[in-house]
Amino acid sequence: MRIAVTGKQGQVVQSLLRRGAETGIDISAVGRPEMDLANPESIAAAFSALRPDVIVSAAAYTAVDKAESEAELAFSVNAAGAGAVAEAAARIGAPVIHISTDYVFSGDKASAYSEEDATAPISVYGRSKLAGEEAVAAANPNHVILRTAWVYSPFGTNFLKTMLRLSETRDHLRVVADQTGCPTSALDIADAILAIAARVVADPAPSLRGTFHLTGSGEASWADFAEAIFAELSKSGGRNVGVERIPTADYPTPAKRPANSRLNGDKLARTYGLRLPEWKQSMTIVMQDLLNKGL
């Protein structure tokens, strides 16, 4: 199985490349300068040359706050670019696995969101990602859209790595406690993508296509996540960092965040037999990876 993934530096891309190296699966990362999501003509040419069995659409404009003032760019990449990737996959007869986000929901629901719940994004980023989902579905019926949330990994910039960096100089941190989600390891996402890719290549069943939720099991607030990070850090001899739990109102940002980012993964479990590990378990694995490297 040959897999091509959009982007080169993202957390999911880097996690897929690691898993590819570990398992011997042929994974090619395609990104700038040879392919630019803001330049649709470059997309078709890149995939025509590679002829992969599956295309993973992982690259995106992810600067959530900056998107409020760069809406045109966000939509160019997250909507038009995603649609062009799906169209390129359709042209070569390949399924596309597209990574989306909890930000397509408003966050007003009291319980975890299912795939059947109405979307209602409250930020430019969320609207651009929802437009991307629609563009992917329209361009290629042979698609799997995976909504995930609160992604962290040993790669790139993410909440876990930020907390570890701040712990080097801070004894106390103020962290939002009234936003709830499902922390998700990008390494777990990569494992799921590889399993899904193998199934959709081998089985044309329509039930394997569509939109699914893919997040770590369990739930947490950002403050819960931070406390778990620091508790694990203390076990490894790190600094004991205190967490002050604050409301979102005390940490204003240009873009609104969903108060509830919890995603229900039952559909993925029923369809593919996949459910990601409990988030603290995966967090510990990623932390040990980072701490062993001295990061």
TrEMBL record:
Residues 1-290 form the RmlD-like substrate binding domain. One of its GO terms (molecular function) is dTDP-4-dehydrorhamnose reductase activity. Binds 1 Mg(2+) ion per monomer. It holds the Pfam family RmlD_sub_bind. InterPro entries: dTDP_dehydrorham_reduct, NAD(P)-bd_dom_sf, RmlD-like-bd. Catalyzes the reduction of dTDP-6-deoxy-L-lyxo-4-hexulose to yield dTDP-L-rhamnose. Belongs to the dTDP-4-dehydrorhamnose reductase family. This is dTDP-4-dehydrorhamnose reductase. It comes from Rhizobium leguminosarum. The lineage of its organism: Bacteria, Pseudomonadati, Pseudomonadota, Alphaproteobacteria, Hyphomicrobiales.
